[in-house]
Amino acid sequence: MTTTGRSPHRYDHRLRDLIQRTRDVTIATDLGVPRSTVRGWLSHAPKVVVSLDVTDLRTSELQQEVLELRRRVKKLTALLRLVLVLLRSSGFTLTHERLPSCLHGHSAFFWRVVVLGSLDRLMVADGGSSRSAVERRSSESR
What we know:
single chain
């Protein structure tokens, strides 16, 4: 059997889905997709595609997403600065010295709980909206 040396083309799944929904072959053939490929799309069941729906968002939704992400970055930056100030003011260094006596006796787990609890309270202060527009939209479509 001889091969032609042609590599198979890949087409956007949204085009394939459109053809399967509308059953209109001319949409794809006008874009240069071979008629045999389009007929193959119509004869098979639609494939399930999991993707990030950023391309389906409207401009206003994308702008809202950017604003939310910027707000989260500002809050996380402020939290990081707060942690650094607390570490510096407590005299903490990475030289394997012991904790000051007033902080002594608390386990590493205790300090993780304190920091993570602060982070949770910070996110709740945001109205509980730590999810992005894409995350909200994908959970709404389920």
